[in-house]
Amino acid sequence: MKVTKKDRPYYAKWWFFISLLILGWLTPITKHWRVILFGENTFAYPFKVLNKYNYYSDAYIYSVNGKQYTARFETEYGRKDLPDKINVLYDPDDPKENITTQIEILYTDENLFFPVGLQIGLGVFFLALRFKDL
Questions:
Q1: Would you state the torsion angle of the CA atoms of residues 106, 108, 109, 111, taken in this order, to the nearest 10 degrees?
Q2: Would you call 48 helix, strand, or coil by DSSP?
Q3: Which end of the chain has less Cβ packing within 10 Å, N or C?
Q4: For 127, what's the count of Cα atoms within 13 Å in the CB-facing half-sphere?
């Protein structure tokens, strides 16, 4: 018995599905493409900052042209061993726009919704196209 290969459209093939998943997971990183490609590099140093709940928390501050900006850096709750300095990429036109080299921050909160939603939607779409008999 000879097995014949079905002619499916390109969007129903495995390689297309996997490449779309990879692109979806790269979206939070490519969201900051301008800062990654054209940003400048500096170091941020830790400071104790009084926040809106009236307790001190650790923040990393970097200076650009005499002004200070807060770097987006997340620490685990209760972690005592903070790095002495962190690497920050910032946009020279808008120094408030920055990213750190901390990969975990790119896949948290609002940045995680799109890849997970895309992965679920693509999985349903792909399985519906591949297995019409189900």
A1: 40
A2: strand
A3: N
A4: 7
Instruction: Residue 91: name the closest of 134, 50, 45, 32 by CA.
Output: 32
Is residue 73 within 8 A of residue 108, CB to CB? The reply is no
The answer to whether 96 touches 71, Cβ cutoff 8 Å, is no
CA dihedral 78→79→80→85, nearest 10 degrees, is -130
pTM value is 0.59
- Model pLDDT for residues 35-86, shown as the tens digit of each residue: 888 888 889 888 887 777 777 777 888 889 889 888 877 666 666 677 788 8
Distance of CA 16 to the CA centre of its chain: 22
Q: Are 73 and 62 in contact (CB under 8 A)?
A: no
Which two structure tokens, joined as six digits, stand for 114? 């799109």
Bin 53: left if φ > 0, else alpha if -120 < ψ < 50, else beta: alpha
DSSP code string of 55-113: SEEEEEEEEETTEEEEE-----TT-----S-EEEEE-SS-TT-EEES-GGGGGSTHHHH
